[in-house]
């Protein structure tokens, strides 16, 4: 990392800078201690980025092991108990260590204060504490790997989780600590957005990424404590025999599911809302056109944040009463409307634009398509009668991978490539980025589309073995997963190559007008040498492409 | 009303046999569920096609290229945005109603059903018929409304019969219900769909649908196996039917529990250090009070069979275990 942007002179023949020409946050101080105890939001963001990408790699390896085991019925590589640990760790690592902190803590940490024209987040020490909490939680998760694994699924349903012999308590404690990491980030961002907006940035002139991160932060602060309490109760029952969920002790096992999903359904939106924010930025900038229907997009983020608290019951359509099911089914459909509005607004943004089909835009366009598939298949699951048939089958597995992977991960990759020049000061090679995109896109659809069919045909999820007739679905799915893995290795190569060999990035390679593009790439430690004034973030007309700079420049800046 | 007529329309577009998407229908309510499925399926196909078409069309039409001049376009258009907020709202209200109506048919059983008790345990299903006979498969007569009263011995399971489009969690400490009317004779899959540990994917059974006039004869013959068969043979059947074989092998393989092969007459060491000789009384107490003498190296996970196996049945199982020494 420290070599990045270290060549003086050649860099920053750039426009659009309030920045200090020599200094940048990556090279301003050296040594491991200057990173792990930094209070600079950008460095914390980079540390988060490295951390969550490591978790993504680990979770991805477990996914490949799962797909390898399932390529044929019966035992292929491991026995049932080991397989159960594989899918549990795949889920737990991906959800708690990668996808929840993914966009807000890694990209958000770098970008949010820059977009606000601020020096840092409101509470830099809390920000650093959040990353350390993540590290502590991750260590406990790794401890479970070494102490016999955990086989409950990432949902820890009782009474299975209170009776199994595996290391439930360490991983649950890890998730509890990770919850604090998430709360700290959320709290910090709420205060930062409220208090540190620059002159000229009213609520309705904030970049939509900030609206999305703000909505996410509210969810993190309000929902995560419920998860913490629930997991504490689980530990109390398992370790001390306090009867809360176990019917043998006078408890109610379904109560755990209500508590768990009261957090975990909003958590789905903690994962997808920031992704929608990224897409609003990338689609608008790479269409070279003002976002369409700003207010509808902004307010739909708020609507999603509120409605997401009212739909948790749809995870229990096969155990609740018909009346409760009816109410939750109706509420569930309500949350689909703001999502539909966003999709239509993104399409309208592209209408009559000038579409620049660079790597971030390809990921963003893929997001729109894949999120549409994920959203529409959500309608199947909201319909009570249809849900009863496909509940806990591969249809659900395919649905949430389309939303979480086709949605959030695609948006994460869009955002990662979009802000990569800003974060590292280096451009990546478009040809490698695009090759990786196509492998990931084709691999993803091969892996997961067929799982919808497997699910409607009745293939239950979390099965180590399966009847012969499901074999073709699994073979196709496993082949897709290997294509996708190849795509990620190309992507990794593309980004590492850019760090070593990439050309120096201009301040504004894509022509955005939100404030992060007004400062050099990478930004100086102070971000801006004087507080900038905000304009309409989606008015790109003043920025003209400059062939020498190979980026966008603006007169008078 | 609109959704009702739409449902009728899509129901006419295909039903009965298995399709690319859905397995064949084995119950009356399956057709109703599938009508809801087709409704949401075709609406989704329409919107996915529309959005994909627009995406591709815009990419082709508006991509950056030499000679392309951009035209003016509005930043917002409130009537248009209200339009595309209201239309999805109306559609999802229709979908909700369709799903809810079909669900009521699944959830509300008619009067005068034939009731069978279902017990889920790690990792098998047991079906108790009105005369007290217990089987590992669910045998039912065609064209009769069947109601299952279900409960679990240990963790949460879920009873799923894809061809019947029914699924309901099976929960310890409470009863849940499922009902259906089988349409055609044959054998159909039963899966457990709530993750329950090691052999979750082996927690399978079959629904066997008989001709209505043959069902009673089947039940009568199946029920008096104890008088029909020699004890060791009856014991072997109980071993297969009542969930012993999910954990105890008869070929020497170590499973979740100790193998039964070459077991009788040997000495085994228990958790806590004691040693016992395997004879009739030890086997009997291991069945009715399995937690009291756990073999060293195994988890105390076996549920009790006290009250669930009759004395003759326990004796038959012990006779069967003796035969495994040969």
- Helix/strand/pairing category of chain A: mainly alpha
Tell me which oligomeric state these chains represent: heterodimer
- Following the backbone from N to C, one meets helices and strands of chain B in this order, namely HHHEEEEEEEEEEHHHEEHH
Estimate nothing, just give the exact number of structural domains of chain B.
3
CATH superfamily of the largest domain in chain B: Cupredoxins -  blue copper proteins
Distance between the termini of chain A: 29 Å
Whole-number mean pLDDT of chain B:
89
Low-confidence stretches of chain B: 9-15
Task: Please name the CATH architecture of the largest domain in chain B.
Answer: Sandwich
Helix content of chain A: 55-70%
What portion of residues of chain A belong to β-strands?
Answer: under 5%
Q: What value does the Rg of chain B take, in angstroms?
A: 28 Å
Please, what is the average pLDDT of chain A? 91
Q: Summarize the largest interface: chains and residue counts.
A: A-B, 85 and 85 residues
- Tally of contiguous helical segments of chain B: 8
Spatial sequence of strands, sheet with the most strands of chain A: 1-2
Describe the sheet with the most strands of chain A: 2 strands, antiparallel
Blueprint (SSEs and pairs):
The complex is a heterodimer of chains A (557) and B (326).
Chain A: H1 32-36, H2 41-69, H3 80-115, H4 124-146, H5 160-163, H6 168-195, H7 208-240, H8 253-286, H9 294-307, H10 322-334, H11 336-350, H12 359-382, H13 384-390, H14 394-424, H15 430-456, H16 471-501, E1 543-546, E2 551-554
Antiparallel strand pairs in A: 1-2
Chain B: H1 2-12, H2 28-62, H3 78-107, E1 114-121, E2 124-128, E3 134-135, E4 138-141, E5 146-152, E6 157-161, E7 166-170, E8 176-180, E9 186-192, E10 205-210, H4 212-223, H5 225-228, H6 231-241, E11 267-269, E12 275-277, H7 280-288, H8 311-323
């Amino acid at each position: 990392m420290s070599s990045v942007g270290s060549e003086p002179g050649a860099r920053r023949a750039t426009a659009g800078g309030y920045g200090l020409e020599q200094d940048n946050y990556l090279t301003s101080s050296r040594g491991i201690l200057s990173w792990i105890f930094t209070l600079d939001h950008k460095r914390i963001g980079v540390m988060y980025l490295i951390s969550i990408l490591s978790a993504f790699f680990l979770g991805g390896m477990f996914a490949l092991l799962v797909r390898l085991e399932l390529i044929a019925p019966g035992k292929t590589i491991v026995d049932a108990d080991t397989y159960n640990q594989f899918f549990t760790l795949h889920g737990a690592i991906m959800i708690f260590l990668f996808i929840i902190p993914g966009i807000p803590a890694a990209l958000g940490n770098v970008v949010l204060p820059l977009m606000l024209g601020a020096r840092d987040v409101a509470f830099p020490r809390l920000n650093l504490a959040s990353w350390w909490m993540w590290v502590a939680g991750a260590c406990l998760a790794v401890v479970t790997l070494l102490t016999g694994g955990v086989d409950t699924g990432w949902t820890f349903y009782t009474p299975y989780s209170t009776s199994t012999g595996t290391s439930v308590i360490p991983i649950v404690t890890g998730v509890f600590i990770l919850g604090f990491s998430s709360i700290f980030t959320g709290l910090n961002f709420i205060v930062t957005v409220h208090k540190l907006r620059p002159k000229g940035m009213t609520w309705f002139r904030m970049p939509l990424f900030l609206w999305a991160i703000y909505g996410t932060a509210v969810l993190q602060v309000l929902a995560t404590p419920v998860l913490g309490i629930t997991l504490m109760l689980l530990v109390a029952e398992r370790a001390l025999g306090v009867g809360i969920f176990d019917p043998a002790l006078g408890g109610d096992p379904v109560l755990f599911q209500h508590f768990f999903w009261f957090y975990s359904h909003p958590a789905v939106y903690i994962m997808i809302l920031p992704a929608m924010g990224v897409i609003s930025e990338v689609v608008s900038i790479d269409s070279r056109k003002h976002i369409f229907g700003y207010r509808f997009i902004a307010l739909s983020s708020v609507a999603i944040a509120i409605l997401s608290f009212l739909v948790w019951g749809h995870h229990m359509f096969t155990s609740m009463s018909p009346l409760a099911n009816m109410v939750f089914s109706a509420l569930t459909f309500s949350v689909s409307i703001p999502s539909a509005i966003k999709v239509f607004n993104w399409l309208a943004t592209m209408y009559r634009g000038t579409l620049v089909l660079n790597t971030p835009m390809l990921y963003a366009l893929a997001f729109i398509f894949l999120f549409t598939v994920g959203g529409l298949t959500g309608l199947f699951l909201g319909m009570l009668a249809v849900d009863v048939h496909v509940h806990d089958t591969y249809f659900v597995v395919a649905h949430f991978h389309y939303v979480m992977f086709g949605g959030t991960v695609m948006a994460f990759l869009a955002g990662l490539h979009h802000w990569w020049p800003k974060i590292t000061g280096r451009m990546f090679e478009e040809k490698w980025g695009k090759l990786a995109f196509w492998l990931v896109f084709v691999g993803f659809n091969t892996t997961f589309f067929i799982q919808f069919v497997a699910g409607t045909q009745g293939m239950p999820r979390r099965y180590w073995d399966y009847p012969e007739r499901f074999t073709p679905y699994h073979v196709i799915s496993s082949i897709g997963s290997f294509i996708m893995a190849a795509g990620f290795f190309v992507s990794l190569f593309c980004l590492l190559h850019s760090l070593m060999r990439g050309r120096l990035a201009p301040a504004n390679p894509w022509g955005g007008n939100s404030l992060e593009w007004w400062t050099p790439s990478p930004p100086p430690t102070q971000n801006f040498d004087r507080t900038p004034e905000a304009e309409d973030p989606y008015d790109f007309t003043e920025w003209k492409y400059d062939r020498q700079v190979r980026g966008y420049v603006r007169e008078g800046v | 009303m609109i959704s009702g007529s739409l449902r009728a329309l899509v129901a006419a577009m295909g039903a009965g046999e298995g399709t690319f998407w859905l397995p064949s229908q084995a119950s009356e309510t399956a057709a109703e569920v599938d009508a809801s499925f087709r409704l949401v399926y075709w609406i989704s196909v329409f919107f996915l096609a529309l959005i994909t078409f627009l995406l591709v069309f815009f990419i082709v039409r508006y991509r950056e290229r030499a000679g392309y001049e951009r035209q003016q376009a509005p930043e917002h258009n409130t009537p248009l945005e209200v339009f595309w907020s209201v239309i999805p709202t109306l559609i999802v209200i229709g979908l909700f109603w369709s799903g809810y109506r079909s669900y009521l048919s699944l959830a509300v059983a008619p009067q005068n059903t034939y009731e069978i008790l279902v017990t889920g345990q790690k990792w098998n299903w047991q079906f108790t018929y009105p005369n007290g006979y217990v089987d590992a498969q669910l045998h039912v007569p065609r064209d009769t409304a069947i109601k299952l009263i279900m409960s679990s011995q240990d963790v949460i399971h879920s009873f799923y019969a894809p061809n019947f489009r029914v699924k309901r969690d099976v929960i310890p400490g409470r009863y849940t219900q499922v009902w259906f009317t089988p349409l055609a004779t044959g054998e159909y899959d039963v899966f457990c769909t709530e993750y329950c540990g090691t052999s979750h994917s082996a927690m399978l059974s079959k629904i066997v649908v008989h001709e209505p006039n043959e069902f009673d004869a089947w039940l009568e013959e199946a029920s008096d196996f104890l008088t029909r068969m020699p004890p060791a043979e009856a014991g072997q059947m109980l071993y297969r039917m009542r969930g012993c074989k999910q954990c105890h092998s008869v070929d020497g393989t170590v499973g979740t529990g100790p193998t039964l092969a070459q077991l009788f007459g040997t000495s085994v060491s228990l958790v806590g250090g004691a040693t016992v000789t395997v004879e009739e009384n030890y086997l009997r107490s291991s069945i009715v009070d399995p937690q009291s003498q756990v073999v060293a190296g195994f988890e105390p996970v076996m549920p009790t069979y006290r009250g669930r196996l009759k004395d003759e049945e326990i004796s038959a199982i012990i006779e069967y275990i003796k035969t495994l020494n040969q």
